[in-house]
Amino acid sequence: MGKIALYGVDASPPVRACKLTLAALGLPYDFVVVNIMEREHLSEAYLKKNPQHTVPMLEDDGACIWDSHAIICYLVSKYAKDDSLYPKDLLKRAVVDQRLYFESGVVFANALRSVTVGLIRGITVVPKERIQAIVEVYEFVETFLKDHDYIAGDHLTIADFSVVSTVSSLPVIVEIDPAKYVKLTAWIKRLEKLPYYSQNSVGVQQFFGLIKNLGITVEA
C-alpha cells in the first residue's frame, strides 16, 4: 500500500465523509490541513494536483483524486476487505450511488452550500427558500429511512458517511425536530455509536462555531 494523504479542513462536510470512510477501513493516512482563508487551495502546488482547487483531495501513492464521492468510492473499491460498504450487487450499488448523488446535488449544493456561500460573501440573512430547501432534505431523508435503519438499506454504507456529514451540519441553520423526524433522529443517533464517529462530530462543532460567528439570521 502506498502512502495516503487527505487534504482539507475538519469543518468541511465532504472532508468528514472521507475521514469516516478512512476510519471505517482502518487505513493509516496523513491529514494535511489546507487553510482556505489563507487561499492555500489556490497555491501553484495545490493547483497542480487539483485544478478545481477543492477540498477534500486524496493523494494515494502519487495519484490525486478530488470530490468526496469519488474518493470514498475509490477507497472502498481498492482497500475494503468486503463489499459491505459499497455493494457489488448492481441494484444495491445503484441505491448507494443514488444517495451519493442526492447528497451532492440536493443536500450539499442546494441546501448547505447555497447558504454558506452567501455567508462568506457577507450575506448573513438566510432567505426563506433556503430554509425550505433544508426542510425538504430532512423530509427526503426521513422518507429514505422509512423501512430501513440506514440511508441506502439495512446496513451501513459509504452513503451514510456522505449524507450524515452534511445533514449533521444543517441544524446550525434549521434544527431537526425529533418529534417530526423520528427516523432521521434515530439514524443520526445510530451513527453516533460508531467507534470512529468523532471523525465527523469534531468537525461538526467546528462548522457550527464558524457559522455562528458570522451572525446568521433567518428571513422573517
Describe the protein's architecture and organization:
By secondary structure, the protein is of the alpha/beta class. Helices cover 53% and strands 10% of the residues. The protein has eight helices and six strands; from the N terminus they run βαβαββααβααααβ. Helix 1 links the parallel strand 1 and strand 2. Helix 1 packs antiparallel against helix 8 (198-213) and helix 4 runs antiparallel to helix 5 (128-144). The chain starts with a strand and ends with a strand.
Short characterization:
This protein has 8 helices and 6 strands; from the N terminus they run βαβαββααβααααβ. The chain is α/β, with parallel strands linked by helices.
Biggest sheet character: 4 strands, mixed
Stretches with pLDDT under 50, minimum 5 residues: none
Strand order of the largest sheet: 2-1-3-4
What coarse outline follows from CA principal-axis ratios? globular
How far is the N terminus from the C terminus? 54 Å
Q: How many strands appear in the DSSP assignment?
A: 6
User: Helix tally?
Assistant: 8
Radius of gyration, taken over Cα atoms and rounded to an integer in Å = 17 Å
Oligomeric organization of the protein chains: single chain
Main features:
220 residues; alpha/beta; 4-stranded mixed sheet; two-stranded parallel sheet; 8 helices; globular
Please outline the helices and strands.
Elements: E1 4-8, H1 13-25, E2 30-33, H2 44-49, E3 57-60, E4 63-66, H3 68-79, H4 90-120, E5 125-126, H5 128-144, H6 158-167, H7 182-192, H8 198-213, E6 217-218
Parallel strand pairs: 1-2, 5-6
Antiparallel strand pairs: 1-3, 3-4
Helix pairs in contact: 1-3, 1-6, 1-8, 4-5, 4-6
